[in-house]
Amino acid sequence: MSNVNFDQIDLQTSGQYVQVNGQFQAVVPANFSGIDLNDTAALSIAIFGGEFWSGSAFTTRVDGTTTIAASSTNYIEEDPETGAITDNASAFTTGQRALYTITSGANGYNTSGITDFRRIAWQDGNVVFKAVDSRIGESASVARAPGKANINTTAVGNVGVGEDDLMTYAMPASALSAAGKGVQIVAWGTTANNANAKTVKLYFGTVAILTTVLTVSQVGVWRISAEVFSTGTDAQDYIAQLVQGGATTLMDVENGSLTQDDGATITIKCTGEATTTDDIKQEGLLVSFYN
Hints:
Triple-stranded beta-helix; Jelly Rolls; seven-stranded antiparallel β-sheet; 22 strands; elongated
């Protein structure tokens, strides 16, 4: 046997159980989200807990169980921010970490019916869990959370006169903890066909990094794209662009520097300022990360 770091054990090795237990201790991170065969019975799958990276700190998840469906292929996955384990009946869910597929029979399963999607890797000097990212089909570390895409497509409009928050995303603390880390923001929506003045803003933290007065008296469609990158502790550069489509088109581009506290949660949001409810609607917000 080659390329094995562990000392090999044979019948003459003294204190075999001590050596075996020590070697298990050396691979503790690989045990995270592993299947606990001792507590697994029939269609109830026991899953080991442990520590995982939740975007800004290590979080402890206790051991738990999940029940799989009989006579089917089950997709066992994990929420990268909460560590919650779930079973999906059709496929891995976008944004979740894939753990296993388990093919079950009427009353249980056998180990030949398991495909393991977990990975282990180094991240910032620590061993962290990795898993196949179901969005792109390749290995993606927990430290990418919030590296997954964060998407909201529940439409919301302004309410009456004044500036109203539309969609909001709370970016976890330390997501931009080092120079070169960045965030991409994409937002989009529509405007009502009336003469009311309409203004859309994109905020990064306390600063409106894009403010655009939209064209009135048309059925309008607008889209904002922006990138914000850390240049050091509590320092960021940004560039943001809005494009409006309709009978009359419009483009606005703004850039600059920021001093948002990257050790705290940073709010990313769009606001709409108009006169009548639903003069401005936001229909989507996508936030993803450059690590």
